[in-house]
Amino acid sequence: MTDRIFSRQFHGAAGAEAWRVLPDGAFAFFRTDSFRLSARFVDAIGGLVGEGDGPDIDVRGDGVTVLIRAFKGHEYGLVRRDLDLALAITTAARGLGLTAEPAAVQTLSVIPGATERRAIMPFWERVLAYDRRPDSPDDDLVDPHGRLPPFWFEEMDELRPDGAGTIHLVVWVPWDEAESRVAAGLAAGGRIVRHNREENFWTLADPAGNEVDIATTSAPDHAE
C-alpha cells in the first residue's frame, strides 16, 4: 500500500486532532446530549461513506465512538482515504455542534502467556469462538464480529515462579493520556514492573501481582 499512513503522520495531520490511532485503527469519540443527536450524526457519516465499507460505530445517548479500522482484508494499515474520511467525519461533527473528546478513547487486549503458545491457542480459539488474525495467525485471535477484545499470545522462556503475570491485560490509550494513566495506577497502589520506551508501554502490577500494560502509539512530531 503506497499510500500507507502511520500513527505519527495521522496524529500530525492538520484537522485530525480529534483522532487517536491504536492497534485496531483510528478512533474518535464525539460527545452528544441525546440519542437522537447521536443518530443524526451516524446518518451524516453514512452520507460520507456511500456504498463503500464504513467505519465501526458505537452509538450511545451521550456520544458516538467511531473506529476506522486498519485491517483491509488480509492487509494491515491505515491509508490516505482513511485520513480523508476521518477529516470529513470531523467536519460533519462540527456542523452538528459536537465536540471531540480524545481522552475517552481506549481499547483492551488480553495476553495469555505460555512457554509454547501453540499449545494453548486452540483452547482459546474454541472457547471464545474467535478467528486467527489473517496477518498473524500464529500469534493473535480476534472476535469475528469486531466487538470483544483481541487475544495476543506471548511466548515465554519460562513461566514466572509465582504465577503472576502468566495472563495479563493491555489497555491501549491515546499518546497524550498514557503517562497520566500510569500515574493514576501508581497512586492507587500499583508498581512499575517494566517500562519499554521503544515500544511505548509500561507494565504495572497491582498489590497482588496481577499485571496490566499501559500502551500507546506514536505521538505527532510536534508533540515530542
Model description:
- This protein is α+β, with helices and mostly antiparallel strands and 224 residues long.
- The longest helix has 16 residues, at 80-95.
- It is 26% helix and 32% strand.
- The strands form 5 sheets. The chain has a 6-stranded mixed β-sheet with strand order 14-10-15-18-17-16, with helices on one face.
- The mean pLDDT is 91.
- It has 5 helices and 18 strands.
- Helix 2 (35-49) packs antiparallel against helix 3 (80-95).
- It folds into 2 domains: 4-104, 2-Layer Sandwich (Gyrase A, domain 2), CATH 3.30.1360.20; 107-223, Roll (2,3-Dihydroxybiphenyl 1,2-Dioxygenase, domain 1).
What gyration radius follows from the Cα positions, in whole Å?
Answer: 19 Å
Helix content: 25-40%
**CATH homology superfamily name of the largest domain:** 2,3-Dihydroxybiphenyl 1,2-Dioxygenase, domain 1
- Anisotropy-based shape: globular
Order of helices and strands: EHEEHEEEEEHEEHEEEEEHEEE
Number of domains: 2
What distance separates the N and C termini?
27 Å
Keywords:
224 residues, alpha+beta, Gyrase A, domain 2, 2,3-Dihydroxybiphenyl 1,2-Dioxygenase, domain 1, 2 domains, 6-stranded mixed β-sheet, 5-stranded antiparallel β-sheet, 5 helices, 32% strand
Please give a quick description of this structure.
The protein folds into two domains: 4-104, Gyrase A, domain 2 (2-Layer Sandwich); 107-223, 2,3-Dihydroxybiphenyl 1,2-Dioxygenase, domain 1 (Roll). The chain is 26% helix and 32% strand.
Layout of secondary structure:
Layout: E1 4-5, H1 7-12, E2 20-22, E3 25-31, H2 35-49, E4 56-60, E5 63-69, E6 71-72, E7 75-76, E8 78-79, H3 80-95, E9 99-100, E10 107-114, H4 117-128, E11 131-132, E12 140-142, E13 151-152, E14 154-155, E15 167-172, H5 178-187, E16 191-196, E17 201-205, E18 211-215
Parallel strand pairs: 10-14, 15-18
Antiparallel strand pairs: 1-8, 2-3, 3-5, 3-9, 4-5, 6-7, 10-15, 11-12, 12-13, 16-17, 17-18
Helix pairs in contact: 2-3
